[in-house]
Design goal:
Elements lengths: L2 H12 L1 H37 L5 H15 L5 E3 L6 E3 L8 H4 L1 H6 L4 H12 L2 H12 L2
Antiparallel strand pairs: 1-2
Length: 140
C-alpha cells in the first residue's frame, strides 16, 4: 500500500476529525523541514563569511581539508605532520573516517566550505529524530 493510499484510508475512517489531524501532522512536518532549511542557510552564511574573512582556525581546518583532498586524489587521509613535515595518515591522531565520505563532494566542489556545508547539513538533520520522538510520545 502506498503512503497516499494509507493516508486516504485514514481520512476515510476518521472522518472530518481525521482530515484536520492529517493536515496538522503535515503542517508541522513542513514547519520542521522549513526550520531546518532556514537554520542551515543561516549557519552556512555565517561559516562562509567567517571563511572569506579569514576567521577560521587554520590548523584544524587545514588538516581536515588536506585529508579530504588527499583522499580525493588517491592517498587516503594523508596529511603533513606539523613538526617534521612528513606525510602521515591522519588516523594516527584522529579517527574520523567521515572525511573519506566527503572526498567525492570535494571532486565536485573543491572548497573548504564543503566541510562546513556537510557539518551543517548533518547537524540540522538531528532535528528530525527529535521531532519524530516528540510526535510519537506527546501524541501531537
Amino acid at each position: 500500500m502506498t503512503a497516499s493510499a494509507a493516508s486516504a484510508d485514514r481520512v476515510r475512517l476518521a472522518g472530518a476529525g481525521g482530515i484536520v489531524a492529517l493536515a496538522r501532522e503535515r503542517v508541522w512536518t513542513l514547519v520542521v523541514w522549513a526550520g531546518m532549511a532556514v537554520w542551515s542557510a543561516l549557519l552556512f552564511f555565517i561559516a562562509h563569511r567567517s571563511y572569506t574573512n579569514f576567521r577560521e582556525g587554520r590548523y584544524d581546518l587545514g588538516h581536515m581539508v588536506q585529508a579530504v583532498w588527499s583522499t580525493a586524489h588517491g592517498n587516503p587521509l594523508e596529511v603533513t605532520e606539523a613538526v617534521s613535515g612528513e606525510q602521515i595518515v591522519r588516523l594516527g591522531a584522529h579517527v574520523d573516517p567521515f572525511l573519506v565520505v566527503l572526498a567525492p563532494l570535494w571532486l565536485v566542489w573543491g572548497s573548504p566550505l564543503v566541510l562546513a556545508f556537510a557539518q551543517i547539513a548533518v547537524v540540522s538533520l538531528g532535528a528530525l529524530p527529535v521531532f519524530w520522538l516528540g510526535r510519537r510520545h506527546l501524541g501531537s
